[in-house]
Design goal:
Blueprint lengths: L7 H4 L6 H20 L3 E2 L4 E2 L3 E8 L2 E8 L9 H8 L7 E5 L4 E5 L11 H15 L10 H15 L7 H15 L7 E3 L8 E3 L5 E3 L5 E3 L7 H4 L9 H16 L3 H25 L6 H16 L3
Antiparallel strand pairs: 1-3, 2-3, 3-4, 4-6, 5-6, 7-10, 8-9
Helix pairs in contact: 4-8, 5-6, 6-9, 8-10, 9-10
Amino acid sequence: MAGVEIPAELEAQRRLGPDWAAWFDRLPKLRDQLLSDWGLTPSGEAMFGFTSLVVPVRGPDGEAMLKIAFDGAEELEHEHLALQYWGGDGAVRLYRADPARRAMLLEKLGDRDLTGEWDLAACEIVAGFYARLHKPAPGRLRPLTGILTRWLDALEADRRDVPVPPRLIDLALARGRAFVGDPESVGRIIHGDLHYENVLAADREPWLVIDPQPMSGDPHYEVAPLLWNRWEEMDGYLRESIQRRFFTVVEAAGFDEDRARDWVTVRMVLNAHWAVEDAKRVDRALDVGERDWITRCISVAKAVQR
């Protein structure tokens, strides 16, 4: 369909394995079915995230955004639940959802995100959303601790293949296991991927949050994405810049510093392992981008240590 072609940058995700390739094969038909079923007309060029196609549309709700997510992404399974529960309070409004097809019709927001703001001011803006978003989690959301157990088991099994200093792997495993046994590690809706590009300018509020990967978890889990994004801006002052961002968001949110530090360490080491898993899944060596990403993960984990 003219104007809503699948962006080549999104299509490049085919390299991640057969599940992705199968989804891309289904995606054009799925896109057209949803446009027809929901009475939507494309109103702009398609956009994309790492795991989704987003199409500007007009329909019964006026201007909106049709989002279709990769159906093999476990972290996106309950996105609609979080948006329903938030009800537009601090987050994009959900007009309708089809969970079986991983499709949602969303409020249209602006194009501007927090990447244009001073990074420390942006950290404070993000931290200002935490109290609004971290509501008591409904029972249908997956508990972070259950998923974390699986992630840690996989890391431990593969640790010899993960090019991360052994002391950081040991630390991540120890802190992660402690979190699994801690009742404070669950109970609140967490966004899971709340960084600068997932906060957009809006009309009804200056900024609104998009693209949750929700779980029932610990608010302190949220800090890490603010440290690994907008990386190039920290060139030459890496450790100091990471630390400034960390302390800015922890103070603005009223978080426990040590707990936030431990979650950053756990998340960064797990991120490095997932890059290894992606390569192993299709039986290839780590590429340059993946090696750079692992180096970034190590740098963040090291920078937040006392």
